[in-house]
Structures are given as structure tokens and as C-alpha cells.
Amino acid sequence: MAISEKQRLYGQVLVDFSNATSTDEAGLKYVENIQKAFDLPYAFINKAKNIFPTLKDALSSLSEAEIKCLNLISEKKMCEFHIDCYIRVASLEYDVYSKFFRVGSYKEATPKDGYSFSPDKDVIIYNDISVDELKKIISSSFFYINSGEEKKELFDSTVPRLIDLGEKISSIKISKKRYKEILKFEDTYEDIRLEHERIIMIRDDLQSFLDEITVTQDIAENKSFKEMLSRYNEARKSYTKITDQGIINEFAFDEAYFTDRNDFSVHTLNKIYNVPISFCAVTFFKKKENTHYLQKCAMCGKFFIAKRLIKSQKFCSVCSKKNKFSKEERTAYMRGYRMRNTRLESIQKRNAQIKRLMDAGYSRTEAEYWASSDE
Questions:
Q1: Distance in angstroms (rounded) separating the CA atoms of residues 4 and 9
Q2: Where are the alpha helices (DSSP H) in 107-222?
Q3: Which residues have a Cβ under 8 Å from the Cβ of 235 and sit 6 or more positions away?
Q4: What's the angle, vertex CA 307, arms to CA 286 and CA 25, rounded to 5?
Q5: What single string gives the DSSP state of each residue in 266-291?
Q6: Short-list 92, 113, 114, CA closest to 103
Q7: Given this model, what pLDDT does residue 236 score?
Q8: Which of 169, 21, 2, 8 is nearest to 94 (CA)?
Q9: 8 Å CB contact between 74 and 67
Q10: Which range is least confidently modeled, 275-284, 348-357, 358-367?
Q11: Can you tell me the distance from the alpha carbon of 289 to that of 9, in angstroms, rounded to the nearest whole number?
Q12: Which residues have a Cβ under 8 Å from the Cβ of 368 and sit 6 or more positions away?
């Protein structure tokens, strides 16, 4: 029996994202797969690819030393933000060359509308202070810092780390002018970095999820799948609109859903990546037999969607065209295959034992404990 083309396309979104060796590859392949899975116009591919910020394009104008500087600046800003969250100032920045902290404070601050202060026409006065002066500000900031542990973390960890980052940045052989250019570029790069970090997180979670499914074929108790199911249930999958033809229902995952980035935020990344991937996962695994179509290549280790349920199909389309295993490789593969089957039998036996215990009145936690004790 063959899997339907629509189901295969949903599965392809999952496996290609999981198999990607870089975030650029994951993002660009995702665009192609989404276009097919959701029947979007073909022109969507170029439009979405032009919007997607690849690291290759973002970093193409930077040397290796400048990329290192950029990454250190990102970490430096995180430390500054950490300190700024706990002290009562408008802004804070550590100057890696003068070794002073540039602190901005509002010109006037008066209670208003329940807030502790409000800026007067957003006028900020800047002052350069030393490390010792910064520590005095931290010590006196009782309004935000309510425990000794928080102050200790700032004194012993965050401030020293920030100074150390400044030393590393200043040791890189680039001009002060170029440093300021990279510092300004980091404001734009921060959004790009956040998107690629989100892609890495999703890819790693998908790899673990798919790897577990290929072993157990069980999604009912899978934590990752439950999270995707919750996201699926909360997502808006269609909407109603009025046209010249009357009132019609439209699929929510239209072209604008993926290309509208006017208000870029964590919510935007969740909308573009997490929600559609969750939709594909739930829709694909709604049919339990689809867990058997999900395979892991015995040669390259990548996931693929089998066209048919053929027991002998152990290789993805790329590896199946390559030379067959050598005698030694075949022996090693069969050894791993037998171990995999043994593991699968053990997991199935344990799940059956847990079910019997829960049917007998044990809680899930108790059943898992006793099932582990019996192993």
C-alpha cells in the first residue's frame, strides 16, 4: 500500500527540516516544502527565499575576525541587558576601549500613572563611570534587586564576564571605526541570530522526536508530539471572508502568513516555524500507519518517507542508488539492526507492563517506577 501524495508532502516538511546540516539549508528547503504541502503559488518560493535571512548573505561582508567580534558583541549585549534589568538607569553600555561604563539616565523622573518614574520628553543624560561606581549603583538599587543572590550574581559573574568580553573584543585586530560599524550591524543581526537559533532548536527537537518514533512507532505518550498537538489545537487553521462570490472559508496558511514580517518578534518565529511544523506533524501522524512510512536510512542516518511499506526498503533514495554495503559494513549493519529490534521489543514490553499496572489502579508515575524495577 502506498502513502498518499498529500501525506507524503506533510512528512517531507518534517524530515527535510530534521535532516538539514545547516540553518540556511533548513530555512530554504522549508520554503520549498511549505509551498508544495500547502498548495501555495509557485512564485511564493522566490519571494519567501528573498525574505529569509541566510547567514551566508548576512556574514558575507565580514572577515573571520569580524565574525568573531560580532559574536562577542552579541554576548556582550546580553550581559549589559542582564545588568540593565536590575538597575535603575535608562541604558548601559560597556566601552571596550576606555574600560568605562556609559550609563544613561533620564533628565527628570516623577511618579506617574502608577509607575516609579517617567521620562521627561525622553531626554537622557549620559555619564561614564568605573566598575566600582557601577557596583555602588547595583548595591543601592533595592527597587529592582530584592535578594542578595541576585546582587552576588551580578558582582561575581555578570560584571566580570562583561569585562572579560571587552578584553577579548579589544584584542581582535580591527580598527575602532570598523568595530563601531560591526556594533551597529549587530542591532540588525540580532533578529537574524534569533531566527537561526530558533531553527536549530526546532531541528534538534524534530531529530529526537523522529528518532524515537522510528524505534517505538508510538506517538500517544510522546512528549514532543503532545506539545505539537497542543500547538495544533490552539492554531487558527482557517478563516471566513466575504468576496464577490459570497462567504467562503480560506486556509489560514496562505502566502501572507509566511511572508508578513512587519512586526518581527518571538511570536513571528513561532507563527512561521513552530505552528506549521506542528500542523504537518499532527496531520501526518493522524494516520497511525504513517509511523511505519517514516524510516531512517541505514547508510547515511537521515530520515525519509518511504513510498511503500516494503520491509527491504532500508535506504533513502540517495543511498539506494549508491553501491551496496561491503561485507564488513553489512555485518556491522545487521548487528545494529538486531540491537534495534531488541530495544524495540524491550520498549514495547515495558509500555505493555505500564498499561497493565495503570489498568490495575496505579498512577502513571507509579506504573513507570514498577515497570522499571521489573527490568
A1: 9
A2: 131-140, 148-153, 159-171, 176-216
A3: 252, 275, 278, 279
A4: 85
A5: HHHHIIIIIHHHHHHHHHHHTSTTHH
A6: 92
A7: 80
A8: 169
A9: no
A10: 358-367
A11: 16
A12: 354
Alpha-carbon span 22 to 260, nearest angstrom: 24
Q: What is the DSSP string of 158-180?
A: IHHHHHHHHHHHHHSS--HHHHH
Residue 145 gets which letter from DSSP? -
Cα 275 to Cα 62, 148, 250, 268, 300, distances in angstroms:
34, 41, 17, 10, 29
Residue 154, SS3 per DSSP: helix
DSSP string, 16-33: HHHH-SSHHHHHHHHHHH
The three grid cell numbers given for residue 140, joined into one nine-digit string:
543601592
Whole-angstrom distance, CA of residue 293 vs CA of residue 214: 9
Q: How far apart are CA 308 and CA 317, in angstroms?
A: 13
Q: Which of 199, 167, 194 is nearest to 78 (CA)?
A: 194
* Phi, psi at 115, each rounded to 5°: -90, 160
Q: pLDDT digits over 224-242, tens only?
A: 999 999 998 888 876 555 6
* Burial group, residue 7, by CB count within 10 angstroms (0-12, 13-18, 19+): buried
